[in-house]
Amino acid sequence: MNKLKFEQFAIGSFHYPRYPLCYFLDSVQRLEVKNIELWGVAPHLYVDDLTGADVKAIKREIDARGLRLICYCPEQNTYPFNISSTNKALRERSIAFMERSIVLGAQLGAPTFLLCPGTGFLNEDPGEAFKLLCDAAQRLLPTAHREGVTIVAETQTWHDCNILHTAADQRRLLDEVNDPAFKAMLDVSQMTIYGDTIADNLQILGDDIRHMHLTSSYSDSLDLTLQGDALRQKYPDGRPLSTHIGFRAGNNPIIDYLRQMGEGGYSHYISLEICARECFGDPEFYAREGLEMMKQAL
């Protein structure tokens, strides 16, 4: 039986923004993890604030600790970025920002770049926004090829996106773009919200899943027997959940998710992702708590 390895685990910097970047790097060392995912936000790693000397200095800090940057994830779900917008100025600025961000990630050694899909207006045909997403991805790929980077597309919740929610949506996107440097990633919160399962993702996407965010979610009425079309009929905008919270606060079966991924032969990285602001004050405590749970799947 296949199993995951500890060497596949990574710690994301998503819940460390109240501390300096080097604090995060030192924290990961204390947790005895070698892999990191960096969130591209100020004050840590916002591409347009960094000089070439800044980037080299950050790379030295990562290397000096023996760490490996496995994915770069610039913030892109909030104003002012949307690669699928019908507003041309907004869309062009967003695509240019992603191009610069791909280069930054590559300069820091990241083989993977996380791309969020953007969104269309809710009163317009989502098919048009989906076409713009495909076009944006194809425009970003020359930069990804030049830099030796794989782009992984992430699903989003209804609050951020109306065009990429499920593994089936990702499959359609990958088939449309049709490029070996453009793949999918799995976030188990979005998976749970829209009624997908680990088995669905492995069946629909297979080895095109090249990255994973392990996230904790909570609902006081979480019924995981409600899946697929039945769930989406009951909750057209997705199952109500509190997501990306501290791992001990959730009740989604994250250990079981990991075991299923291992048994399915998943061989790429898995980042611990926490975004809840209540975890910002003591981020290492919550990272350690999550990591200890992840180890139970090995």
Fold and architecture overview:
It comes from Harryflintia acetispora. This is Protein FrlC. Residues 28-296 form the Xylose isomerase-like TIM barrel domain. The chain is an alpha/beta fold and 298 residues long. The chain has a single domain (6-295), classed as TIM Barrel. It contains ten helices and ten strands. An eight-stranded parallel sheet has the order 3-2-1-10-7-6-5-4. α2 links the parallel β2 and β3 (68-74). α3 runs parallel beside α4. It is globular, with a radius of gyration of 18 Å. The N and C termini lie close together (12 Å). The model has no long low-confidence stretch (mean pLDDT 98).
What is the strand and helix layout of this fold?
Elements: E1 9-12, H1 21-30, E2 35-40, H2 52-64, E3 68-74, H3 88-107, E4 112-115, H4 126-147, E5 150-153, H5 167-177, E6 182-187, H6 188-193, H7 198-204, E7 209-214, E8 216-218, H8 228-234, E9 242-245, H9 254-263, E10 270-272, H10 283-295
Parallel strand pairs: 1-2, 1-10, 2-3, 4-5, 5-6, 6-7, 7-10
Antiparallel strand pairs: 8-9
Helix pairs in contact: 3-4
Structural class: alpha/beta
Termini gap = 12 Å
- Taking all Cα atoms into account, the compactness measure Rg is 18 Å
The number of strands is 10
CATH domain fold name:
TIM Barrel
Level-2 CATH architecture: Alpha-Beta Barrel
The unreliable regions are none
- Beta fraction: 15-25%
- Physical arrangement of strands within the biggest beta sheet: 3-2-1-10-7-6-5-4
Give average pLDDT, whole number.
98
- The number of helical runs is 10
Helical residue percent band: 25-40%
- The 3D shape can be described as globular
CATH-level-4 superfamily name: Divalent-metal-dependent TIM barrel enzymes
The CATH C-level class name: Alpha Beta
Major beta sheet summary: 8 strands, parallel
Write down the secondary-structure element order. Answer: EHEHEHEHEHEHHEEHEHEH
Structural domains: how many: 1
